[in-house]
């Protein structure tokens, strides 16, 4: 009897039948090997790409900011100067791209002192030098004596407390009786006008050097005012309000600048400062502004190579090397460059190079803790984003 061969089609499963355990595992294996694996790989790949892009967007600017900040505080390759924010870069600057020689750190733009444009009065001198009078003996002082902020006090303050502080300080005898040269030279219109009358200037300088309040007490007074200013004008200092910042520097430099203006030329028995004012060449005059953070003026000449300037820079170097040197921020920013200029013009070792010390307060003023905090937060934030 003939037996038909088995059908090539798979057997028809009855509705009541349940798929075997083997078939179930086989089907699962097939699906697992196909679509889920592919989808998972694509998803992971996209996630890695997105994470890389996100990290790059954050890390590249952060790296540039760190390099730019590094040029301010550490010796660095000259090529890093391309990342500095100090001034505009001309096309010649890009030649530094191959320069990996070490470069000195950049001085931060003095946020302790906002540099003001020097009055043309100090440049447009008479063609001939006026002989400086000798130190007077008990002259009759002008009444009232020139005072800082003798014109209308600017109301450009961030806070009322700071404005009130200035109003009160400029009215009390503890301030006025000390006749601070460090503020008179930049904020007194009356004192500036005295340059037109050399005898009146001579009398004013005598009054600065011979105050009814002792120099020791005046120095203590100015230290107190400086501390009070930092408290009352905290916001204004942070906002770089010029009046607050420049006054703080001047208060710190009170004692040094009083010693500077009272120096006497032993050859002529005249105040060195009065001789500088009387000279048609302002080269010597510029050195009296260094403690305020004002750099030397243009076209310095050998007229500055004299006994008075030599004694003045020696006084500055000694002050910077003293325990109080860290508070002389304006002088720290300008002295060594001025000393180098003087040495190149007057002879090697004419002026000593000072070891500028930096206190914790100076670092705070320079913004280092603030920058460090931002960097730490940026790194932490980047880590969170890149890790997610």
What's the structural blueprint in terms of helices and strands?
Elements: H1 21-33, H2 35-73, E1 76-77, E2 102-103, H3 160-169, H4 173-176, H5 181-187, H6 189-193, H7 198-209, H8 215-232, H9 234-238, H10 242-252, H11 254-261, E3 264-265, E4 270-271, H12 272-278, H13 307-320, H14 329-346, H15 360-366, H16 368-387
Antiparallel strand pairs: 1-2, 3-4
Tell me what the structure shows:
The protein is an all-alpha fold. The chain is built from 16 helices and 4 strands. It has helices at residues 21-33, 35-73, 160-169, 173-176, 181-187, 189-193, 198-209, 215-232, 234-238, 242-252, 254-261, 272-278, 307-320, 329-346, 360-366, 368-387, and strands at 76-77, 102-103, 264-265, 270-271. Strands 1-2 form a two-stranded antiparallel sheet. Strands 3-4 form a two-stranded antiparallel ribbon. The longest helix is centred in the first third of the chain and has 39 residues, at 35-73. Mean pLDDT is 77; it is low at 85-97, 106-121 and 358-374.
């Amino acid at each position: 009897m003939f037996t038909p061969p088995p059908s090539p089609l798979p057997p028809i499963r009855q509705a009541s039948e349940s798929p075997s355990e083997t078939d179930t595992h086989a089907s699962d294996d097939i699906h697992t090997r196909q679509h889920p694996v592919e989808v998972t790989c694509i998803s992971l790949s996209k996630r890695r790409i997105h994470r890389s892009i996100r990290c790059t967007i954050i890390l590249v600017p952060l790296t540039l900011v760190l390099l730019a900040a590094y040029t301010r505080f550490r010796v660095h390759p000259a090529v890093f100067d391309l990342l500095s924010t100090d001034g505009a870069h001309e096309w010649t600057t890009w030649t530094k791209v191959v320069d990996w020689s070490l470069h000195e750190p950049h001085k931060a733009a003095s946020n302790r002192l906002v540099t003001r444009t020097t009055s043309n009065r100090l440049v447009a001198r008479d063609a001939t030098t006026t002989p400086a009078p000798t130190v007077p003996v008990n002259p009759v002082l002008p009444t009232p004596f020139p005072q800082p902020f003798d014109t209308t006090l600017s109301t450009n303050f961030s806070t009322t407390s700071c404005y009130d502080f200035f109003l009160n300080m400029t009215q009390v005898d503890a301030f006025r009786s000390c006749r601070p040269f460090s503020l008179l030279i930049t904020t007194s219109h009356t004192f500036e006008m005295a340059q037109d009358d050399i005898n009146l200037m001579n009398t004013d300088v005598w009054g600065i050097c011979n105050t009814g309040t002792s120099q020791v007490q005046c120095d203590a007074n100015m230290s107190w005012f400086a501390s009070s200013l930092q408290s009352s004008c905290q916001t204004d200092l942070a906002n770089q309000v010029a009046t607050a910042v420049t006054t703080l520097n001047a208060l710190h430099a009170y004692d040094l600048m009083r010693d500077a203006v009272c120096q006497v030329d032993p050859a002529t028995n005249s105040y060195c400062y009065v001789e500088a004012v009387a000279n048609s060449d302002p080269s010597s005059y510029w050195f009296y502004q260094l403690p305020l953070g004002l750099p030397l003026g243009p076209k310095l000449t050998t007229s500055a190579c004299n006994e008075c300037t030599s004694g003045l820079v020696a006084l500055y170097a000694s002050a910077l090397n003293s325990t109080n040197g860290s508070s002389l921020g304006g002088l720290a920013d300008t002295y060594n460059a001025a000393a180098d200029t003087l040495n190149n013009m007057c002879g090697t070792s004419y002026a000593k190079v000072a070891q500028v010390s930096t206190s914790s307060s100076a670092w705070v003023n320079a913004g280092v803790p603030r920058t460090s905090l931002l960097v730490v937060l940026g790194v932490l934030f980047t880590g969170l984003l890149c890790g997610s």
